[in-house]
Amino acid sequence: MIHKLHELPFSFDALEPYIDAKTMEIHYQKHHGGYVTKLNAALEAYPQFQNKSVEELLTDMSMLPETIRTAVRNNGGGHLNHSIFWSILKKNRGSGPEHDLSDAMNRSFGGFEQFKNAFFKTAMGRFGSGWAWLVIDDDERLAVLSTPNQDTPLSEGKRILLGLDVWEHAYYLNYQNRRNDYVDAWWNVVDWQSVAGRYDQLK
After folding, report:
1. Is residue 148 within 8 Å of 169, Cβ to Cβ?
2. In CATH, 21-87 is 1.20.120.330
3. pTM beyond cutoff 0.90
4. pLDDT for 40
5. pLDDT tier at 1, thresholds 50, 70, 90
6. Using an 8 Å Cβ cutoff, are 190 and 92 in contact?
7. Average pLDDT over residues 146-159
8. Which of 21, 39, 108, 192 could form a disulfide with 75 if both were Cys (CB 3.0 to 4.6 A apart)?
9. Strands (E), 66-203
10. Residues near 86 by beta carbon (within 8 Å), at least 6 away in sequence
11. What superfamily in CATH does domain 99-202 come from?
12. Is the distance from CB of 74 to CB of 52 less than 8 angstroms?
């Protein structure tokens, strides 16, 4: 097992009532765990790629044999996307971005509320399964975008600050088909300190 399912940085019930414990348990163990298992299976016959990080695999998938490219894209993307997702979750008690990240949002969107509106529309506009993202774009400004399935902005050369999983498995037990309620609730569990740390590292 080259790639591993790393331990969550919080307990399954740590984000309640916004994300319930049962959803978190299934999401982490079954879905994320499944991506890791299938990624390792795809690489099993190709030892020359087994020591590469998931970021390296997804940044240049043209180096991969065509026979495993789709499996790495789907399962490697699922592994990376979820790893980022868990790392930026924590009850925030109503806090928001500060300092350099706040300034960057002001420059790129006109303010935090304008960013939230743009992000909400992007998350709601993703048809079917996928993600909404906050990234650093090619022009060094912040941008909001969406990807289908487990595709990742990393493969498009973007630097990822924050991602929201809008697959139904991320919210259906608690919110059923009300994705809008899930997105609204999610703002209560964004760890802005962690996002700011990513911004300082990647800008």
Report:
1. no
2. no
3. yes
4. 97
5. low
6. yes
7. 97
8. 39
9. 130-136, 142-148, 159-165
10. 8, 9, 28
11. Iron/manganese superoxide dismutase, C-terminal domain (3.55.40.20)
12. no
